[in-house]
Structures are given as C-alpha cells and as structure tokens.
Specification:
By secondary structure, the protein is an alpha/beta fold. It has helices spanning 49-55, 70-85, 101-106, 133-146, and strands spanning 5-8, 15-18, 42-43, 60-65, 91-96, 114-119, 122-128. The chain has one domain (38-146): 3-Layer(aba) Sandwich (Glutaredoxin). Strand 1 and strand 2 form a beta hairpin.
C-alpha cells in the first residue's frame, strides 16, 4: 500500500499528501481547512484543471457538459450519486465545455456529455453520451481495472 496519497483540494487547489489509512477520517486541507474528500463532483476550469489532473493520485473522472444540454442535466444526478458512492477511491469533476472551450478542444470533445477517465494524468477511458446508473457503474468498473493504482 502507498505510504501517502496526494489529493488536490477542491477549494484552494493545494496538493495535500495524506496517509491512506486516514482517508476515512475526513481529512481537511491544511491550507484552507476545507474537507479534502467531497461527495460531489469538483468544478474544474482552465485555471485549475492541470493541477488536479497531474497531482491527484486517484483516478479522475471528468464530465464535459453544458447547462443547456438536456442529456447532461439528466445524467447529473447519476454522476452525483457515483461521486458519493466512490468518494474514497476516485475523484469526480465537471468541466463546462461551453465556458471552457479551450479545454474541450484540447480533449477533442465533439459531443456532450463526455466522460473521460484519467489515471495519473493519462487518459485511460472515454464515454460519450448520457449513462444511467447501471451503465455508469459498469463503465467505472472498467476504468478501475485499467488504473495503475488498483
């Protein structure tokens, strides 16, 4: 087992190393004192995306979405539930593809919603189109099997 796990704070973007056996204790960021483990997707922008991508040891599941997209809105509660269920093993994030068009272009987002799974900064899986809870769970199992950390 790893001696430390690095997670990036959703509030101040500080990279924080914590012992894996302390994750269940509700660790807080030493800089801003906010919880490091959050049971909802993080909001990422061009300003903080790369830091979260490169410094987080857990798999990062990024949902590229837009507020006007009906399938995106329909999938949002499913993604929120997955973030709660997997809060101690992977991070979930949302990128507004319309507001962050450069990020969407960087990852060749052609349709939304699109989920991209990253492991230690490397894309390992991609899924376009809205998923129901069962389909998302299956996809996350596949992602987990591809991770270096599993």
């Amino acid at each position: 087992m790893a001696r430390y796990v690095t997670l990036v704070c959703a509030d101040c973007d500080a990279a924080v190393r914590i012992p894996p056996d302390r994750i269940g204790e509700g660790p807080r960021c030493p800089r801003c004192h906010q919880p490091l483990i959050q049971a909802h997707p993080l909001r990422l922008t061009a300003a903080n995306f790369d830091r979260h991508l490169s410094r987080t040891d857990w798999p990062l599941i990024v949902d590229f979405w837009a507020s006007w997209c009906a399938p995106c809105r329909a999938m949002s509660p499913v993604l929120d539930a997955a973030a709660r269920e997997h809060e101690h093993e992977m991070r979930f994030a949302k990128v507004d593809a319309e507001a962050e068009s450069a990020l969407a272009a960087r990852y060749s987002i052609r349709s939304i919603p699109t989920l991209i799974a990253f492991d230690r900064g490397r894309e390992i899986a991609r899924q376009s189109g809205a998923l129901d809870a069962h389909s998302l769970s299956r996809w996350l199992d596949e992602v987990r099997s591809r991770c270096a950390t599993s």
